[in-house]
Amino acid sequence: MHISSVLLLAAGFAHARRVVQNWDITYVTTNRGLPQPAKRGVGVNGAFPLPVVEAELGDTLVLNVHNSLDQPTSLHAHGIFQRGTNYYDGVPLVTECGIAPGSNFSYEIPLKQAGTYWIHGHSREQNYDGLRTPLVIRDPKDSRRTDGEFLFAVEDWWPNTFQEVYPILTAANPTVSLFANPPHALINGVNANNTQSLQFTPGKTYRIRLVSMMSLPLWEFTIDGHEMQIVEVDGVRTKPSTVNVVRMSPAQRISVLVTAKESTSMNYQYHVTMFGDYLPAIAGVFPSVYNGTVVYSQGAPTFVPTEIATGFLDEIGMQSREYTPALVPDRSIYLNTTVGFMADGSTFESFNLVTYRDPLVPSVFSALTTGDMAINPITYGPQTNAHVFKYKEVIEMLLWNADTLPHVMHLHGHTFQIIERGFTNDTTGVLRNRVAQTGYSPLQRDTVFVPKKEYAVVRFRADNPGVWLMHCHFDWHMGMGMNMLFVEAPEMMPQVLKVPSRIADQCSAQGIPMQGNAAGNNAYNVSAAPNLPFLIANTTRVQ
């Protein structure tokens, strides 16, 4: 379970390496070694798991992709800001056109951030079907040294493909339960029931990188009899925070330091618990607890705890390591995460009852080709729910979830400060949990979990010219339309973004227009753009 090395191909001097991955994205029919029937997944070079990608700060990551699927594909480096390279963010019909079947494409991504990230498919929910892997970027100048490192990349593997799931999700009266066959867990691509042991040496300190590549469930990590210090959240260094359990939502990453005990008289267990109170429990099947051994001495007895630790992280009480006081917002936007239904009863997810549909013209091209019209949100189409921000404007988002299911909100191109949490039924404000206003450096992350009947307030600075997706990272909810666009400093984008010809070549090969508004018009008229009536709010939800 140690992170294995990948081939680093050097080009030029030591600090300008090109880390090259050659990926043929293919269908792979497999059960991943799990006790369930095989299904068609999306893998790389005919196999699972995908290779772990490792690099250093200052490298350039080159992903040479051949698409052997019968549908477009794309890759998103989750958590990477893509400053000046918005066109490599991997969102089809937003920042690119996708990679056409049978064609080749290369992402060349300058790595300007160190930390723990991951790469996943961003076309047609291919992430759900297995197109995902960790991305670890180390800083050679990091003064924090450890004696070893372990990786836990945890993912769920469902017995059905997203193509099979989607009609059931959106059906007016579904007759099939999606939870009849719950998912199994994989750790580092292997059946979680077959996890490897961790070898600890007394007194040594180890870094454990936790990467949640889940599409739906939550999970927790704990080691019996050991405390953990959180030192990184979603790629951002934090002030050390001591915990005995770490809870992870889909797409989140956390690094912890664990110092081994001085004695070798006992061995211990670690536990990975996959759960979700929004998923029905099945006795002996779900929630699922996967156990592994922390070995101090072969043959030593194993410590038996009275219970397995569980609990939420105190995000409001945590602080980022580099002091950044709470941003003062220039504007605040209210985003109501809702499920709604159409006249025929079919259901969709939405922000403020607007369910997302792709524009005809990729939004980055609309921003680059429409001149003064680029500052008007309607330019990007009625179903993208676009918001246009000025350069360096501080944006506050009130993420309101009065829904009966939780949501996991991810913003591309940024991290945001966690400012406040609370409950949607609070009428007095007594239950508000808010960061201190002075001398405090709020936790920054790029993905926040918002439980049902709760809200979160987050803030970020719009200092990254480009078009960025904001969405729920539950794959089911994203596929059902809980996405929207943030367009930042469109007047600066022609100077900042120099779109490579290979992007345009993919658009041309697929017949996708590259100029004009969402409908391809050089005017405000967007009548030809994909459009749906506003949804009707649904007060109950049946999955």
Automatic annotation (TrEMBL):
Q: Which GO terms describe its molecular function?
A: copper ion binding; oxidoreductase activity
InterPro entries for this protein = Cu-oxidase-like_N, Cu-oxidase_2nd, Cu-oxidase_C, Cu-oxidase_fam, Cu_oxidase_CS, Cu_oxidase_Cu_BS, Cupredoxin
Q: Which UniProt keywords apply?
A: Copper, Metal-binding, Oxidoreductase, Signal
Tree of life domain: Eukaryota
Plastocyanin-like domain segment(s): 36-141, 150-275, 358-490
Which Pfam families does the entry mention?
Answer: Cu-oxidase, Cu-oxidase_2, Cu-oxidase_3
Q: Which interval of the chain is the signal sequence?
A: 1-16
Family the entry assigns: Belongs to the multicopper oxidase family.
Q: What is this protein called?
A: Ferroxidase fet3
Recorded source organism is Coemansia biformis
Q: What gene is this protein translated from?
A: FET3_1
